[in-house]
Specification:
By secondary structure, this protein is mainly alpha-helical. Helices cover 58% and strands 7% of the residues. It contains 8 helices and 5 strands, in the order αααααββαββαβα. It is elongated.
């Protein structure tokens, strides 16, 4: 993967985690306030409304982030291809504006898994009878394992238990996102922050590659669709290693080459994949063997 996309991935990851962690801290604070509210109906109403608004704010911030992140990744991907094509001595044409709304929706829909999971957990939690301390502990453990036992609950120790809970929550991501197998079974759960970080890396790279593909196909139209796979994986068992440095076909139009789609079914461009592609000297050489010239 190019240095440019690595920089964008890091920037977007930091921005997304900053948004999430800020709202997470506010949500955790409100959850703790509810736990100590007892029978105070006014406090209960205020905190429940606050939680609802916090989740709505997070959802809106995710939407704004996804729009900006996709636009930035796409623009950088197109610019990267222009520079590479120009460096080969090929005149770069002015590329038309490409619609990227469908990618934005994919990014946002993935981020919505986080807010939906939070909303479901919070919805269950706020139904608790907060005047019953045993039920409060049970609800907190359903939300996120606290280590506090129902047997520890009594009026004298309640404040110390809440202090312990506050420390337990302090640096903890209390929400998780499920991963499903092809049969719809949950195979594992990951922290929502880990999931957000993975999304920032993966969808940034996917958008960068889409811009690269659009730019190449628009630049060369019917002349060619070959690209070289760029980047080196540090993981020896990575399924994309066999394609490193290989020339592939973006559309299958140029016969005799594995298509990018075929390579993807065998592991290329998996989640967190560091590889990209471009028109390179190796591609120019491949065309020359077919008596095709991309250069003016």
């Amino acid at each position: 993967m190019t240095n440019e996309i690595r920089k964008i991935q890091l920037k977007q990851k930091k921005s997304l985690l900053k948004i999430y962690k800020k709202r997470l801290e506010e949500i955790k604070k409100s959850i703790l306030e509810l736990a100590t509210s007892g029978g105070n109906t006014l406090k209960l109403a205020i905190e429940k409304k606050k939680l609802e608004k916090l989740i709505q704010k997070l959802e809106q911030e995710f939407k704004e982030f996804s729009d900006e992140a996709i636009e930035e990744s796409y623009r950088q991907g197109a610019q990267d291809q222009k520079k590479r094509i120009s460096a080969l001595g090929i005149a770069v044409i002015a590329l038309a504006s490409i619609q990227i709304a469908s990618i934005e929706n994919i990014y946002y829909s993935h981020l919505l898994r986080i807010t939906k999971e939070i909303a479901a957990k919070v919805k269950s939690y706020v139904r608790t009878d907060f005047s019953d301390k045993h039920k409060v502990v049970q609800a907190l453990n359903n939300l996120s394992q606290t280590g506090i036992l129902s047997s520890e609950v009594d009026t004298e120790r309640w404040q110390s238990l809440m202090k312990r809970l506050e420390q337990n929550f302090k640096n903890k991501d209390i929400f998780t996102i499920p991963y499903f197998d092809k049969n719809g079974n949950v195979v594992r759960r990951v922290k929502a922050s880990t999931y957000a970080e993975m999304l920032a890396r993966t969808l940034c790279a996917q958008t960068f590659r889409k811009a690269a593909k659009d730019s190449i196909l628009e630049q060369f139209e019917n002349e060619g669709d070959l690209v070289e796979i760029l980047g080196e994986s540090v993981y020896p068992d990575s399924p994309c290693i066999p394609y490193q440095g290989k020339v592939l076909s973006l559309t299958g139009r140029t016969k005799g080459y594995t298509t990018v789609k075929e390579a993807e079914t065998n592991g290329l461009f998996h989640p967190n994949c560091i590889h990209s592609f471009a028109v390179t000297e190796k591609v120019i050489d491949a065309y020359s063997q077919k008596d095709i010239s991309l250069k003016a």
